[in-house]
Request: fold
Amino acid sequence: NAGVTQTPKFQVLKTGQSMTLQCAQDMNHNSMYWYRQDPGMGLRLIYYSASEGTTDKGEVPNGYNVSRLNKREFSLRLESAAPSQTSVYFCASSPQPSSYNEQFFGPGTRLTVL
Amino acid sequence: AQSVTQLGSHVSVSEGALVLLRCNYSSSVPPYLFWYVQYPNQGLQLLLKYTTGATLVKGINGFEAEFKKSETSFHLTKPSAHMSDAAEYFCAVRGSGGSYIPTFGRGTSLIVHP
Reply:
């Protein structure tokens, strides 16, 4: 099993450009998440999807959109990138939307917006 | 609302010394607690978790943590540090108020000196 995979690994954008970050999991998990990680800020939740067909805003959703394409895939879109969106983005999944479950993380996408 | 405080953004130890990473939490419901480790340029992976039952929890790579309700703490320890333990460590507490989304601390960077 590959677990959680993310593409691309690195990306450099100019202000105003758009892009989509891809995430896929092969563990048959129901719930998926997008986080951003900034120095000294820990992990902040952008959006999540409890199950296929549902998405909800997290702590910092402004400037982002998501699509739960199917049970395996959960994409994050930046419509008009800003320097403040320079960050490392992590996708995660968990078996169920339950507080018992730990999360499984992908390797991250390192995004720089110039 | 729940919150997590990790004391010390950086902890430095010598190889072979005791590792102690501190985590205090606030939760309006019985807490479920997690420790994750992030090695350089990788995603987070679960070290250990406490949900119910035994308050001393053993995890991977020789780490353990003890849930102390009276102190609202869940400190992570390892008797003897190894160079390979150098990483970022995150404590997390389960969601409350109907949310299953965990709250993460800001992380502690463990530095291991030869």
